[in-house]
């Protein structure tokens, strides 16, 4: 059908997107809880000397790299979908999936929602401090909290934001205390099976989940907030399909696992608005 005859209205775009929203995202339940269970088993095995540290380090690092995405989906309510009786799954997966990153779920959720509300705004987007010319900037910036002036501005305007941020502080301190105790009891296993993998996992997540999809993060128009991208010869699964992150900023409630299919259905709208990187969609699914 000739594109001129297509209905490219916002109403039709939303109708097309809506057909992908609402299902229980069981894949993220398996990945989120599964990677944490594997990481915990590896940590225990490493402290007891049942596996060599180099092997445990590789497995633990892989787990930490896969830790954030299920929690991210939980932050948007995409684990339970439209099933109100299963909403508890969002919190369950959200909290557990990033525990090995020592990253409180409520802190991640409340700051991420602000990222969506003010994406690419240098004064309001908590993720904007990841912006830089090189990926190394993002890889290091994630280990520092967002600028206090950004958090303070949101706290002054929104008591709910303040409440959720303050609720995350005790858990963050508990993570630090737990790691400190483990470091005293098992110095090398804690270093190679927890501390270092968690740092690598956070850097990996920030580079491929934030820096790559948004660079350059200087666009404020809805259809230009993020871009489609790819790394030659690297399967999209190696970066957890963050190559399609642009559609997430259009419709955050589309489950991550359904995004590639949704992108193809939304292609006429994507191309009509000349979204950044749309030219790769023909060859990269």
Which keywords apply here?
285 residues, mainly alpha, 2 domains, 59% helix, globular
Molecular structure report:
The protein is mainly alpha-helical. It folds into two domains: 83 residues, no CATH class; 196 residues, no CATH class. Helix content is 59%, strand content 0%. The chain is built from twelve helices and no strands. α2 packs parallel to α5 and α9 packs antiparallel against α10. The longest helix is centred in the C-terminal third of the chain and has 28 residues.
Radius of gyration: 20 Å
Total tally of structural domains = 2
Distance between the termini: 22 Å
Percent in helix: 55-70%
Largest sheet properties:
none
Number of helices: 12
Share of residues in strands: under 5%
Ranges with pLDDT <50 over ≥5 residues? none
- Arithmetic mean pLDDT: 92
Structural class: mainly alpha
Shape: globular
Could you spell the SSE succession in H and E letters? HHHHHHHHHHHH
Number of beta strands: 0
């Amino acid at each position: 059908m000739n594109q001129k005859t297509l209905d490219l209205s916002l109403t039709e775009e939303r109708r097309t997107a809506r057909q992908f929203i609402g299902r229980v995202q069981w894949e993220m339940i398996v990945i989120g809880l599964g990677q944490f269970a594997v990481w915990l088993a590896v940590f225990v095995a490493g402290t007891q000397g049942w596996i060599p540290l180099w092997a445990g380090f590789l497995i633990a690092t892989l787990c930490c790299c896969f830790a954030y995405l299920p929690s991210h989906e939980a932050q948007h309510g995409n684990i339970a979908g439209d099933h109100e009786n299963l909403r508890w799954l969002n919190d369950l997966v959200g909290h557990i999936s990033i525990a090995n990153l020592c990253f409180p779920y409520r802190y991640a959720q409340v700051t991420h929602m602000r990222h969506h509300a003010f994406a690419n705004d240098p004064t309001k987007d908590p993720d904007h401090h990841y912006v830089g010319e090189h990926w190394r900037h993002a890889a290091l910036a994630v280990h520092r909290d967002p600028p206090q002036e950004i958090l303070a501005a949101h706290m002054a305007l929104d008591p709910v934001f303040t409440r959720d941020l303050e609720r995350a502080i005790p858990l963050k301190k508990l993570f630090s205390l737990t790691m400190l105790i483990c470091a005293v009891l098992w110095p090398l296993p804690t270093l190679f099976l927890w501390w270092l993998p968690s740092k690598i996992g956070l850097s990996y997540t920030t580079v491929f989940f934030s820096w790559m999809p948004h660079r350059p993060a200087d666009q404020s128009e809805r259809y230009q907030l993020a871009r489609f991208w790819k790394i030659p010869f690297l399967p999209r699964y190696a970066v957890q399909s963050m190559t399609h992150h642009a559609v997430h900023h259009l419709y955050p409630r589309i489950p991550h696992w359904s995004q590639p299919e949704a992108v193809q259905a939304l292609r006429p709208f994507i191309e009509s608005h000349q979204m950044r990187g749309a030219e790769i969609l023909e060859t990269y699914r």
